[in-house]
Amino acid sequence: xxxxxxxxxxxxxxxxxxxxxxxxxxxxxxxxxxxxxxxxxxxxxxxxxxxxxxxxxxxxxxxxxxxxxxxxxxxxxxxxxxxxxxxxxxxxxxxxxxxxxxxxxxxxxxxxxxxxxxxxxxxxxxxxxxxxxxxxxxxxxxxxxxxxxxxxxxxxxxxxxxxxxxxxxxxxxxxxxxxxxxxxxxxxxxxxxxx
Length: 195
Known about the structure:
Low-confidence stretches: none
Structural class: alpha+beta
Largest sheet: 5 strands, mixed
Number of helices: 8
Order of helices and strands: HHHEEEEHEHEHEHH
Shape: elongated
Helix content: 40-55%
Mean pLDDT: 93
Number of strands: 7
Strand order of the largest sheet: 5-2-3-6-7
């Protein structure tokens, strides 16, 4: 079964969001008819649809589109996956990297599918803590491995540009299942590999 990515733009949704963006520009004191802003509402509408396209994607379906029987029982690690998400509290970006490992129990998936799962859950309004757990749970449910480990390191522009204004702060979250949770040696091996 081949997984097909869906187009994230809907003309009606674009038009409706653009109307609201136009109103927001005016509430901010801008002239939405000004040359530089005429197309901004449509651009923002398309941008928001792209940044939240993960709502129309299914992580489990992505993994299951490339599952292979394999007698491999050692760690599979995909590290430094670029991550771009949007904070649900301020709708500002958070950017970082994600490290994902699993120990197969008879089934593996295509390596690109791991990165696509990260993308699917990142392209939603998120908090980093939930995002970390969603990636872990998706891989656990789709592959039934002996364990899954996920670590995300990200910088949040809501902390950098407003509020506390701490531009160098990095947030790290982790989620483990199976042997990564029960066996400190396995968890430590993963943590050493991502350093």
